[in-house]
Design brief:
This protein is mostly helical and about 260 residues long. It has one domain: Orthogonal Bundle (MetI-like fold). It has helices at about 1-10, 45-80, 80-95, 100-110, 115-125, 130-145, 145-155, 160-195, 205-215, 225-250.
Length: about 260
């Protein structure tokens, strides 16, 4: 993971991701450890460039989703009343609608390729309802705690209670939700790109799968073309799972290992 995201571009010529920069259909060799595709692109260069791009989409989408979801959750759970009813209605409708289908319709109606950042924002705008519901349930429990009630009786404003008393205690949970949102966004982006709705010029993991499908790499027997993106995807999700597990252990004392 560190090699693909951090140091790979420092020790490998990533310019070989361009078409016709290498011989075509080469199996893995010393010069091209991951081989090359039918367009003459080095697959190691594509993996080194594509993994960070895919993570970028996930991070942008996760930050957008968590930001909107957290704001909606606090407004809904703390202030209740009409605000709570309106937000819960929007969340319920959003949860009932297939997010991937909405993204497909958005991409088709835009009429052009979405950039990496635009895809991340679009995914985030369609997925904020998931963290909104889970964070709201946590805020509802915390709202009834004695220290929150004491702050309310002492005259602290609602926003003051949210930012000074409640938010710090929910940071571990919100961070864990961010990791989950990033993982979901990466999966959504790969799905969109695999069916050809990504940016054709970006060497992301999803677009690598798309080109595999377009050029029938399995039929051609080019196993070295489809294996690297799948391995990279597995590495990304395992890494995110380990991060999420660590955050759960940090936020929940009962999960901490005894020394």
């Amino acid at each position: 993971m560190l090699f693909l995201v951090g140091i790979g571009h420092l020790i490998w010529d990533t310019e070989m991701f361009r078409p016709l920069s290498t011989p075509t259909r080469l199996p893995p060799t010393a010069e091209h450890p991951f081989g090359t595709d039918t367009q003459g692109r080095d697959l190691l260069a594509i993996a080194i460039l594509g993994t960070p791009l895919t993570l970028r989409i996930g991070l942008i989408a996760g930050i957008v989703a968590i930001s909107l979801g957290t704001v909606a959750a606090f407004l809904s759970a703390y202030y209740r009343g009409v605000i709570d009813g309106a937000i819960r209605s929007v969340v319920d409708v959003g949860l009932a609608m297939p997010a991937l289908l909405i993204l497909i319709l958005v991409r088709i109606n835009v009429g052009r390729e979405l950039s990496t950042d635009e895809m991340g924002i679009a995914i985030g705008l369609t997925s904020w309802v998931f963290p909104a519901r889970t964070i709201r349930s946590q805020v509802l429990v915390m709202r009834e705690q004695a220290y929150v009630e004491l702050s309310r009786l002492s005259g602290t404003s609602g926003m003051g209670i949210i930012f000074k008393e409640m938010m710090p205690n929910l940071i571990p949970y919100i961070t864990a939700s961010l990791v989950a949102s990033v993982a979901g966004a990466i999966l959504a982006s790969i799905g969109l790109e695999a069916i050809g709705l990504g940016n054709l010029s970006d060497p992301t993991l999803g677009m690598t799968i798309y080109w595999n499908i377009q050029f029938s790499s399995i039929t051609l027997g080019m196993w070295w073309w489809w294996v690297p993106p799948l391995v990279a995807i597995v590495i990304v999700f395992v890494s995110l799972f380990l991060i999420s597990s660590g955050l759960d252990e940090w936020s929940n004392p009962r999960l901490r290992k005894r020394v």
